[in-house]
Amino acid sequence: MSIRVLIADDHSVVRQGLRLFLGSDPELEIVGEARNGAEALELARSLAPDVVLMDLLMPVMDGIAATAAIRKEVPDTEVVAVTSILEQATVAEAVRAGAIGYLLKDTESDALCRAIKAAAAGQVQLSPEAAACLLSELRMPHRDEVTLTERENEVLLLLAKGMSNKEISQALHIAEPTTKTHVSHILDKMGVASRAQAALYAVREGLVPLT
Length: 211
Hints:
By secondary structure, this protein is an alpha/beta fold. It has ten helices and five strands. The chain has a five-stranded parallel β-sheet with strand order 2-1-3-4-5, sandwiched between helices. Strand 3 (about 50-55), helix 3 (about 65-75) and strand 4 form a beta-alpha-beta unit. The model has no long low-confidence stretch (mean pLDDT about 85).
């Protein structure tokens, strides 16, 4: 079963380029294109794609606002922010809005395809440079402000290592819906919107190494 992808970018050349090399991967299916954040939200509602590739700087509604709206209204759709510059504040806002990942527009096609597949599986991918960049921008609670159960701590550690819900379930020998519930509780207790933020929290608190 292919991963359904929605491309959101205000530049037609970028959309065409993405469609061209993503279309060569048999595991990916481009289901729609949006020229701005408002169109991205509308198409996400109607198409329910697995992953949205979201440009951050767009007219009508920017990518950050669109990401937040999509994560709220279509929670099963993951959003990967795409930007031309790795700006701390902008990328931090995207992650705060609920993006599971972020890429630069010069990312190689193979790496982009892998990132989309990882996002569809619920995996957080944090490069050391991007994680360090975001850690200085994101405001997150400290360890003494968050009380997690022993099981939630186990789930958080595996989540921060880039595991999907399915992989976490297999590692801990629990049902996948149970893992999903644990992840939801972790995000609620931390007061964060995304798995990426939870992973960054684990890195900042020294629970997992920055690798």
